[in-house]
Amino acid sequence: AQCKGERERARTSQGGMASVGERIKALEEFILEDGQPTIEAPNFAIFFDTAADTSYAENKAYETKWTAEIETLKPLTDLIKRGDYFVNMVYTYRSCSKALPQVKTQDDPNKALIYEKTFEVLDPEIRKLKDLMYFNQEAIKVFCEHVKSIATGLSPKLKKPKLISELYVTQFIRLLDLFSILDALKNMKACLNNDFSFYKRAFGFLRKSMASDQQTQENHTLYLFLAHQNSITTNLKTEVQQIAGFDDVIALIVNQCARYLETKLYLTPWEKHRLLRVMPYGLFLMDGDKDNEKLNIFKSRKVDTNRFAKLFKKYPIVPLYGDMQMSLEQTIKRSPHFDEKSWGSPVPEKALIAKYEIIFQLEKVREQHNTYLAKFSSMINQINISSSMPEFKGFDMDTCRGYYAVVLEGLKLLSKWSGKVLRQSAWKYARPSTGDKVGADSVEYERVVKLNYTQEERFALIEFIACIKGLAGVLTKHDGLLSPLIRTYIHDDLQEFTTVHLSAMILFASKKKKEVREELLQLRALVADYKNGAAPDPALFGKKVKKPSKDAAAEYPSRAVGPSPTQLDLTRTIIYGLVAHRVINQKTDYSDKDFSGDSPKLMEKFLERSFFYPYMLNVNSTVVKIIDLADLWYREFYLELSKKLQFPIEMSLPWILTDEILTSRNSSMMEFVLYPLDLYNDAASRALYSLKQRFLYDEIEAEVNLCFDQLVFKVSEDLYTYYKVAASSIGLDKPYRQQLEIVQPTNRFHPPKTRYDVLLRQRHFQLLGRSIDLNQLIAQRMNSKLRQNIDFAIHRFEASDITSIIELEIQFNNIKQTHALLSEYFELDSFDEMFNEANDSTSLVSFHGRIVLHIVSELVCDFFPNYVYNSITNRFVPSPFRNSSEEVPRDAMPKPKIVFQYGSKALGAAYANMFQLYNKFFGMPHVLSLLRMVGKTSLPLVIGECLENLALKIQNVLIPYVRELFVGMPPSSKLPMYDYKTDGNFGFYRGLLADLTRYAELETAFRHFKEFGNTVVLLNMFENGMCVLDTEVFIQAAPFLGVGPHNMHDSSPTDDPTTSSALYVTISQTCSKLETREGSAAAPVVLKDLALASWKADKFYRPSRENQSLFKAALARIHEMVGKVKATWAGQPPDNGVLAVDSTTEFYRLWSALQFVFCSENPGEPTGLEKFGDGFAWGGCTLIYCLGQDCRFQVFDFSYHILKVEEAFPTIETKEEKQIPLLQFLHSAGKMRDVNQAIFATLRAYYPIAQTNILILHPPTEEQSIEFIGNSSGAAMLQPSSTGGSLTVRGMPSATGSLRGMPAPSPRAPPTGSTPPPPPMLREDDGAPPPPVPRDDDDSETYEGYGNDGYDAYGAPPPLPRDDDYGGAPPPPLPRDDEYGYDSAPPPPLPRDY
What we know:
There is one protein chain. Helices cover 59% and strands 2% of the residues.
């Protein structure tokens, strides 16, 4: 049982392991890409060097004759590493003395303290310089020792000169390059001498206390080292020329440099430039004094100067270090034996420009880039397809060789392009700009960078960088797929050479008993790999080896494992020793006779092929070294030259290139905008891992922060402008836009083509180790821009009149369209939230918003008083007779911002032309825009404010004015007879109403009635606008509601139409089927919510069966307001109990007089319609209608009566001047009658008022006596007839009272409260009570009920409350009657933000 349990556990364990293996395999196939376009350089979260340098730690494990030489390379390698440290230290050295205080006078009391602190600060820095000096001495000594050792082996006295390996010579090349760079850096850094001078001065003051002669001598030696230019090269040349045969060693070095360049045995740009730098430096060291002809390199047979001259003329300028460059010809010209004539003429400047400036090579590079990407992509697809086949068992060697060649070709292309970029930079450094743009205050760095590149050259450089970084990203992306294949090929190639070709060589050497046999066996033991370990080889015993057939299996295992660095270097060194006679064309230990057939050629090819193995074993590390373009940012040399702490970002080449893309608006370059920023990654990586200077990284980081903020800002600005133009183009009428494009072909009324979408999908852009979500950063800017744009639109509206409501709506639609376009790429805040936030409609102090409050303010303060209405056009227009002293206070108009308006000047002008059609009037288009902007939520506030304004107008303005205007009414205003004809009637009323006409405040009263009428007209327009909007909504929703012409009236009032709507029925049936189907509805609650939501949507969009009218409700409110003053304006009861014909104090009779004066105008003066419009008629007719006096007005109106007389007895027109007023009156009165009829018809249609004062007259059964008919007393009329006739009054007030049991107020009674009345009407006696209007029967009759005391009780005219009510403070307390609904306290002021 125990064994059985163990077996079960083992089976479970095996199954678990199988499951884990399957899961790991599934993870390898899992796609983690997010679809983001790759427009950035490769970045590594974790970087691992699989071919790390081991410094030949395992060298002694291999028994070869080169082991001892390899051991000598270790000190050289360590020395070069130390030298690299000093190179970085000198290049990044910044002067400390600039920040130190100085001793100004010898009597300075702080002199000792200053010198002491100066010494403490500078001592660590000077110690570094001393270390540099000692390292220089040590390095020269080590170099000379090795040269002496090698020169001894190369002595011509020996029969067989000692062979020096390529690896050894390569270390000498690196060391000579180190000397040249250190010497150039020391010469460049003047700050070294400055700091040492401060240090030496402080040390001299403190020397007595320190008492160190050794340190004094050390300082003197350092002074000589720093003070002399080229001291390192001079000392090296002096020391090395004392060695016999040194020229043989130098010649070996420079010849190998030339051979490497000619055969292209280099891969990184730094290696190529190193070879170029070492050649002239080595030749200079090799050339002796002028008198020493034996060391004349131009006559020496050891070097071919023509060979070097070609290379120097081909590459005259080479990068040295960072922002430093060197001239190869200038270096060789320092040689004492240099002869200008024998050197030859230089290459023409045009040819050099074509070679150095990459703009002339851009087309070729594009073709190479596209061709290689196509080849590489095809290779990757082939690998993926082949590896996914079920019968796949791995790739053979020939296939791997092809993949290896493709990758190596890509690395060579990267190296070639990077080298071109770096050499162009060095060329620009060597040739500063001298153009017109160079100012007197331009620094040297500005001349070599900012002003030294044209726009075309900048674009070419950007494209080069993009090709380099883009191709590098492709190679590193597939490194995990290609590295095993590359290592497999290297392993198999090495084993094929060992097992096939090397065996043939061993066989030949064994038969011929050649000395080379031992070295061949060492080579075989070094790298051979057998299937079953070490196996006997017939070649070892001189037996012939059969060549395997092509179909035969290889005798070595195929592994994805490359050789170690030590193995590879030893292998190449051994093979180089075997074929050195062919490589350097000199006699060595071996020759072609020691090998059979083409074996030397095979080894020579393998030697050349294996040169790239170290690079290919770690492709990622090689790519990083190749594409390092940090030199384009570093500027230490020019900081030292200009004596600046740092240059602004406008002079930084990475930002110059990035800004060029943004400012040029070149859509084809937009995809490359992130590639120049990778130069900061290169510079930061070098600062941390190579230079190891934190302050440099801090400077780079600070510049990156500033540049990236600028990048995001500029991209956001361009992006918002682009989509703003797109939204404006969409909102512009298409025929109008097409016509504009024809008339203005130079202007663009549509957005230009661009490629922002690629940039906007960047979610994890890598910069200085940070993963930046560029999309989110731009989205934040877009949210801010949209909020600013909304605020700008509202601010413009607040600074404009009410007619700008159309512009406001179009701007908001434009902003909303922009928001919709941007939402395709960004996660933006809700537009409604941004609108409410900018509109202040969600704050704690206001729930109405800036737009609504400004609309109310404009309506009350400007629109109602200063606009006149035309009922024919149904428009309001600004009155040309407005009082200029009563300007409406508004905010200042904000400065125009093109990007916040319509994106471009052309579109702004197009929209401005369109707005000019609407800014001179206010009509239904404005009403519809106002309703859409305000919405149903805030519309009640607007209407409520309008009605509140009417209530204040009636109570505080109209009541006092009406009371005062009744003073000017004649006691008798009966209608004259027709016999007087038109001119007689007209003259009669003009004389009768003379006092009223002369009233100084008459036009002010007219204006108040016009305001009242304008308000009523606007409410009517609101009603019409709401009908239009509701109809539009219904037309859109009707198909979903199942409503059409065929069934609009089918359902009965008791039926619920929602149960049969298409929307609800479809969704409910679908949800029901999903609920019954198993597995279809994972969340049944959601289905119920969906059905409920469709029910609510149907109820919301379905129109109500009841006819709800906004204007009807407004008229009801107005009727209620007028009803509170009806008792005052209804006048006294008629004497006859029925109707007052000749004399009445009812409002309609006053309005008849006002209308007559309104229609009467003097020739040459503006008419009443021109000054007040039809709003005057709307105000009076509305009041008359609400008072129930419309029928009496139409019967007894003065103007109507004259028109009727005119209809009966037409006036014969003459050219007499006195007839002009009559003709003008008839024309105006006819218009007013038509307008009044239309007004009364509209009011009756919307708000019919039931007649309550219905007087029913029953005819008597018998004739009454003459006395009864002649009796005019009301008491007699109210008595019932003695013969059975009756007279009944329904709702008519009694002679001593009014309706509701209240006493009838007198029209002359003063108003309640303390509100001052309007000014009294001017009369001829200057302030005395007006004389009675003469009547036909009695000239001395007084106007009953109007005494002098009552008139004198009035004071000065009241100030207009409108200007104060809405000017920034709440209205003052207004006295009201108790009936009006207020208790004596003023109404609470509405909360406002202004």
